[in-house]
Specification:
The structure holds two protein chains of two kinds. Chain A is mainly α. Chain A has helices at residues 25-60, 68-73, 80-90, 96-108, 122-157, 162-176, 179-192, 214-251, 254-261, 266-293, 298-303, 309-318, 322-350; strands at residues 193-194, 197-198. Chain B has a seven-stranded mixed beta sheet with strand order 8-9-10-1-11-21-12, with helices on both faces. The chains are: A mainly alpha, B alpha+beta.
């Protein structure tokens, strides 16, 4: 798996503001070519990573102990003939190399086979659950990244002050809280209701099941409130701390003094000069978090009975349902690779020194 | 770090913070002020036409809605509600009662069974359910490997199945089979299922309502969200009383309990002792602590082997001595296990079949019983040649200490707790015990690489299957194969009795043989039943007025052998679909909060615009 390149080395000199316009045509053509080369390199890297993931996923899950056929039929009235027949159906009676070549041939055309336990194509099973996961985790990542950026900026700008101490303290405390425990507390407090607090939200699931149109959208939003709050509460500290420390690094820089000397208001110095330069490491993290979106959050999905991919992965692993775990692994790793690629492609735009 | 960074003027941010705090406070106040979902105690009287929904919390995902493929309890429970089997089990004592068949009779040579199919059962699309549907179902399972996935074992001994008339089904057998009134196979409508191409991939979950003839009709299903069922008004026993039955997913037990407390669900099963204790104090909730259908046992490895006579695995040789096995069981304090580990939600184990099935349940006589008696255990070990040495350890004649391993399911807290107790009890006797807790015990188990194991099975009204897994025929063919055996037991006497009961069509005589088999199993000490865990569940009495348990007196509700509980449930007078109510009132709150936030955002943006304008000036 490729990892996003980190921010460029920091120099002691003043930073140029982000998104500078390029100079005359000669250097512009050169930099465009450099960018294209850079993009090609990154694309190639991503393709190699994806292929490696595809191959790894076959062998990785065959190490897990457990016999899929026995696990699935455990406690059921089955005969030895039925067990043998299931093995045949799943192709588990074939030699491993043959299973591998079959897998590769199919996987390259996007077919990950049929799930052992759900008797349905892996692609369909994943597609069924992707929207729920993207919705929940996507919304949460966007909110906690924005919240972290905002609070992190404020903390750094007023660092050492009471606001900074409280905000960082609260974020770190929430960061250390186990998400399933926080989720349960929220359910007990705001779903069931305690004392004067009424039960405002549903105890779980994604929808009530009988709404349509706008009512359906509102119903899903209503079901999303508590799980999103849980994910945001537990997650925003990351962005906050990274943003805070990278902005603190910028704050001593001369170019900020220059900006102030020009008579710019403090707010603008922060917004137009300091923050854009401090954004790079945070952008890396936001993209890594976006890459995680596909994998969902198994604990929060479980507590709130959210029908997402995290829960599906857990069920697939416990059998192990090989076609399903393989498919999910490729999707998760693929999302990560794509997000890293996007981050890589975005860097040169944020900081023209990257990719030169 | 530069300490000379000028602090910004705090004026503007403070205003903004104030605004945000204000907006949040307003949203919360609005939420608190809205009359929210009526808490159960304040549930208003039902409107005359209000839909009465029975909501059951479930956690297990549906593996398939095709009866040919479904293996999980939740799926087979749904099938129980939407299709009829040939026979059903009596709610009082589990004896076979009419289902789709009204009568069933064997031929004198015991090889042909004739079923009379009822004339008053029709499919939900109006077609008549006939013997041809039943014959088609069985024949498909016999011919098509995919259709045999879940229930193939039921037809393994069938030679030929025919329907000479719409009300007569004839099944010819290869050899006598006493379980012909216990065929737990849903009969499917041939006219719908004939169109299916590949049974191994058809999940019956795309077209609703699903055509069936059980007490309910499956009307909607969303993966891991809900299963919805409506009463089948044409059901021959009479339609269910609730307007809708919903199985709603709660992947976390504590969340399901919260939903029950709130009234979003009417019923939750598989409660932990702590959950049961807390719910029993809650108003309008009845905790049902019923005898379970499981046994929980200490299995000992009798020396793993395959049918071709090859030995494999590494079970401790000392366990081949019956006295050692019995000593271990005599040194296991079952009362403490019930009181401390199960916290009273279990019954002390004796025979193999739980007392929930009184026709087959067996108890050892006073002389036969291996009670908790450490002194007797010590004497048995001395007699077997395992004496204590100076260090207090029991050693064999070869000088090796008596050290065992026990396989434990890492996911089962009971296994771990009992393992700790055993270490203590057996340690006092001079026996070492290593508790090996694994996520997946099946690998060492199938390879015979264990000495002892925590074992347990759910028992059906017909005991044939749980007995068959201890016969020599269930051993794997070779060490590389997997057999249906539970614990590699292969005992000639047990096998003889098993063959006898299979061919015994007289129920009382068969029960007698089954009891002899349990007696034999008890004496050999390979399967030592420690407890019968209870089924602990709870329901809301302000939603369910009455409901039939199985067995009828003091039985349980979820996972019954039949459709009695949900079919018989009578709604309480007070309607409480607060889950639905909650969502509509909650909607108001949500919209209100969104509006407040939008206003806040507007002000925020406006202020920003103003500040840039100021800068330009």
């Amino acid at each position: 798996m490729s990892t996003a390149s980190t921010a460029p080395p920091r120099g002691g000199y003043g930073r140029r503001p982000a998104l500078v316009k390029s100079g005359p045509s000669g250097p512009r053509a050169r930099s465009a070519r450099a960018y294209l080369l850079y993009v090609a390199g990154k694309l190639g890297g991503a393709a190699v990573s994806l292929f490696a993931v595809l191959v790894t996923s076959f062998f990785l899950f065959r190490i897990i102990p457990g016999d899929p056929v026995r696990t699935m039929t455990h406690g059921r009235q089955v005969s030895a003939e039925q067990l043998a027949s299931l093995r045949r159906q799943f192709g588990l009676d074939l030699p491993v190399w043959q299973q591998f070549t079959d897998y590769c041939a199919k996987a390259l055309s996007g077919d990950f086979g049929t799930s052992y336990q759900f008797h349905a194509p892996v692609g369909d099973l994943i597609a069924e659950k992707v929207p729920a996961t993207l919705l929940l985790t996507g919304v949460a990542v966007v909110i906690y990244s924005a919240l972290g950026l905002w609070l992190g900026t404020r903390s750094a700008w007023h660092h050492g002050g009471p606001g900074d101490k409280v905000s960082t303290g609260v974020a770190l405390t929430l960061w250390s809280v186990p998400s399933f425990w926080l989720g349960l507390l929220l359910i007990i407090t705001f779903s069931v209701g305690i004392g004067p607090v009424p039960g405002m939200f549903p105890t779980g699931g994604m929808e009530s099941g009988d709404a349509s149109g706008f009512a359906y959208v509102a119903d899903v939003a209503h079901h999303m409130v508590l799980p999103v709050i849980t994910l945001v509460a537990v997650g925003y500290a990351q962005t906050l701390l990274v943003m805070r420390s990278s902005l603190l690094d910028e704050m001593g820089s001369d170019y900020l003094t220059t900006a102030r000397a020009k008579g710019l208001r403090d707010d603008l110095v922060r917004r137009r000069h300091a923050v854009p330069n401090a954004l790079l490491p945070t952008v890396t993290m936001v993209f890594i978090n976006l890459g995680h979106v596909a994998a969902g959050s198994i604990l929060v999905e479980t507590v709130f009975s959210w029908p997402g991919l995290g829960g599906l992965f857990y069920q697939a692993l416990s059998v192990p349902d090989l076609p399903l775990v393989q498919g999910l692994f490729v999707v998760f790793a693929g999302a990560m690779i794509v997000m890293n690629l996007l981050a890589d492609l975005l860097y040169p735009l944020l900081d023209p020194r990257v990719g030169r | 770090m530069d300490t000379e960074i000028p602090r910004s003027t705090r004026q503007r941010p403070r205003t903004r913070t104030l605004l945000v705090v204000g907006a949040t406070a307003l949203a919360l106040a609005a939420a608190a002020a809205t009359p929210l979902n009526p808490a159960p105690q304040q549930a208003k009287a039902a409107q005359a036409d209000a839909k009465r929904t029975l909501t059951v919390a479930v956690s297990q995902s549906i593996d398939s809605l095709s009866p040919f493929l479904a293996q999980r309890l939740v799926s087979t429970s749904v099938h129980r509600l939407i299709y009829e089997n040939l026979t059903n089990y009596d709610v009082k004592d589990n004896h076979a009662v009419p289902g789709l068949a009204t009568k069933w009779e064997p031929s004198p040579d015991k090889l042909t069974w004739t079923y009379t199919i009822r004339e008053d059962s029709s499919w939900s699309d109006g077609e008549q359910a006939t013997a041809e549907d039943a014959a088609w179902t069985f024949n498909t399972m016999m011919k098509d490997e995919g259709a045999a996935t879940a229930n193939g074992s039921f037809v393994a001994n069938f030679k030929k199945v025919t329907a000479p008339s719409p009300t007569r089904l004839v099944i010819e057998l290869k050899k006598p089979q006493a379980t012909m009134a216990a065929l737990d196979v849903p009969i499917l409508p041939r006219h719908e299922w004939e169109k299916v191409g590949d049974f191994s991939k058809f999940n019956n979950d795309k077209k609703f309502p699903v055509v069936g003839n059980g007490p309910f009709v499956l009307t909607d299903y969303k993966v891991d969200q809900y299963v919805k069922l409506k009463p089948n008004e044409k059901f021959w026993r009479g339609a269910p009383k609730f307007d809708e039955l919903v199985l709603k997913y709660y992947k976390d037990g504590d969340a399901a309990v919260a939903a029950l407390q709130k009234g979003e669900v009417s019923f939750a099963a598989n409660l932990t002792p702590a959950q049961a204790a807390s719910l029993s104090k809650t108003e309008n909730i009845k905790v049902n602590d019923a005898p379970g259908r499981r046994f929980y046992a200490l299995a000992t490895n009798p020396g793993a082997r395959s049918k071709d006579g090859k030995k494999f695995g590494n079970g401790h040789p000392a366990l081949l001595d019956q006295r050692v096995r019995q000593a271990l069981f005599a040194a296991t304090d079952r009362k403490t296990i019930i009181d401390k580990v199960f916290q009273g939600h279990a019954v002390e184990g004796e025979g193999y079949i739980p007392p929930r099935f009184p026709a087959y349940h067996w108890k050892p006589s006073a002389g036969q019983k291996i009670a908790y008696d450490p002194a007797k255990a010590a004497a048995l070990l001395d007699e077997a040649g395992y004496k204590k040495n100076s260090a207090g350890k029991r050693v064999g004649k070869d000088g090796k200490p008596l050290d065992f391993r026990i396989l434990c399911h890492a996911t089962d807290p009971n296994d771990k707790a009992i393992g700790k107790y055993m270490q203590e009890w057996w340690g006092e006797l001079g026996i070492g015990l290593k508790v090996e807790c694994l996520d997946n015990v099946s690998d060492p188990w199938l390879a015979g690489e264990y000495d002892l194991a925590f074992d347990g099975w759910s028992v059906n009204p017909d005991p044939d299957f749980v007995l068959s897994i201890h016969t020599c025929a269930a051993l794997p063919a070779t060490p590389k194969d997997t057999g249906a055996t539970d614990n590699f037991i292969c005992d000639k006497k047990f096998d003889q009795l098993y063959a006898q009961q299979t061919a015994e069509y007289d129920e009382a005589k068969r029960a007698g043989i089954v009891k002899q088999m349990q007696s034999r199993l008890y004496d050999t000490g390979y399967m030592n039943v420690m407890a019968y865990p209870n089924a602990v569940e709870a329901y809301r009495t302000d939603q369910i007025k009455s409901i039939t348990t199985m067995p009828e007196s003091g039985g349980n509700l979820w996972g019954q052998d039949g459709y009695w509980s949900w079919w018989s449930a009578v709604p309480a007078d007070v309607d409480d679909t607060s889950g639905e109510g909650g969502s509509s009132t909650g909607l108001v709150v949500g919209i209100g909060a969104a509006a407040v936030l939008a206003v806040g955002l507007g002000i925020f943006v406006a202020m920003r615009r103003r500040s840039t304008a100021e800068d330009r000036e």
